[in-house]
Structures are given as structure tokens and as C-alpha cells.
User: What shape does this take?
Amino acid sequence: MSYELQSGFSGFIKDTIEYRAVMGHGTKSYKDYLANFDRFCVKHYPKETILTEEIALNWSNDANGKDLIKRMSVLRGFGRHLLAEGQPTYIIPTSFNPKKKAADLPYIFNDDELKRFFEATDRYPQSYRSPLLEYTVPTIFRLQFSCGLRPQEVRLLKRLDFDFNNNTIYIADGKHRKDRKLPVDTSIMRMCRNYDKIVETNAPDRTYFFSSPTGKAYSKDWLICHFDKCWEMSGNVGGRGKCTPYTLRHNFATQILMLWMEEDKDIDSLVAYLSEYLGHDSFEATYYYVHLIPKRLSKMPFMSVDGIIPRIEEVSL
Assistant: This one.
């Protein structure tokens, strides 16, 4: 581990990582999370050597959403290893389900925030280490937002995934291993085509459309770092909550639903298309976005239980 463990749990953490490696399990995620746990203990429980319920839940609850669930899973495994070593410990029950926090709800932009964010991407500063950065930042975030892509999907797009003749992009091996071809707004595709021409002069044989100076795809941390900087440059900091690159996908979905509502479209029948476009595994994942927009949409007839769940007698086995 590049981080030097310092807490009273450092020895047990090393043993846990080594054990997972010997058993053939992945260790990177465990290393990262347990290093974070170690830093937490150094700061708040410097003398503790026994994993208590207080320590476990305080560290786990210092996160939101999927990160909270992952922390609990990692610490549950760590606790089981301690128990196997004969150490007194607390193990988070598998049935423990933390209540959803308000902070877990995605941040929904208003029009001014969205405008300021993309204006910030357009004036992103030059970088001598990454000469194309000022072109990459506005293009990658506009493409992600306009297509509702997951952060990893936009990062891993390859040059061959773009069909400029038909204005489509191909998402290969997305979440749930669902491939899909997406039509893209003409103006966004034109922007991508111009970007491709600029990059081609520097990296004519690149694999990834958004290629880092090393020729690899940009990392998750790279995307978060530059998103955060644009958000700060926009003046939107200190608003209603925390934003991440994934927020752009949430906002795409909610804006599409809002547009359909304003146009008096049959949203109930169109949700299937939105679900397919987003690459969702089920309609339920798409209906989730209905709860993120104004109450008037949530009160529409198709949101009733009858509109979503078929009656028992209508289901044929």
C-alpha cells in the first residue's frame, strides 16, 4: 500500500489484504477503503485496537449512497477477518439498511446553474502538460450531458464508436453488459467532429476518443477533478448540495421527462425508450427520476400504483 498505515488496526488491515490476495480476491478496492478507514481511526480513535459498533458506524456513515454501502461491505469483511483471528469485534449485520439521507438525492440543476457550468467549461485554462485539455473538457462534459452517459461510458468511448455520417455513438459493454447505439444531437456531434480533427493532428492513431497524453483513457479521478474545477469556476459552489460527473446523467433524464411533460407527451409509453437510451436494466430504474422533479409530474396518473404494477388477476403465469 502506498499509504503507510498508522492506526491501531494497521497490522490487521495488512493481514486482511494479504489474505484476500492469497484467496484470489481483488484487493485494490479493499486497500483504498481500508486506508481511508485507517486515516479515520488515526484522527478520531488513535488508541483503539478493537473494532466497536461506534467506530464501524461512524466511519460508514461518513459517506453517502453507494459509497456508504461499499464501506459497510468492506468493514463487514474486515470484521469477519478479525473474528477469524480470535479478536473481539463488531460486525455490521447484513440486514442493516441505513436510512437514505437527503444528501443521497441527486443534485438537479436549474437553468442558470447549467448555463454557468458549461460557460466555465468553455473557458477552461490551457495546460502545458496536456495541450488539448481546453478542448477536451467542454467536449467530454457536453457529450456526457447531452446523451445521459454514465461517467465511465463517456471516458471509455473509442474513436471507432463514433459514426459521424449518421450522428450516432456506440456504447460497448455498458453496465449490465448492455450494448446500445445512441443518436446524438447534431450540434453536439459537430462539436465532437471538430474535436476529433484537432486531436488527430497530435494523436492520429489513438484508440480512445478522449485520449490522455499517455494514450490511455482518462481515469475516474481525472473526470471528477476537472468536473469539480468547472463547478468551482462556474460560481455554483455553495449551492444546494454535492455534484459529481454522474450528476450530468441524472439531469439529462429529469430534463427529458420535464420536456415531455411540457409538450404533453404520453410519458408512460415513452419511458421505455428513455430506459433503453439510458441503458437501464429495468423500467423501475427509469421511473426513479420521476421523483426528482416537481410534484406535479409525480401526481400524474401513470405514477399511481395501478399505472406501474399490474393487477394480480392480469398476470398470466
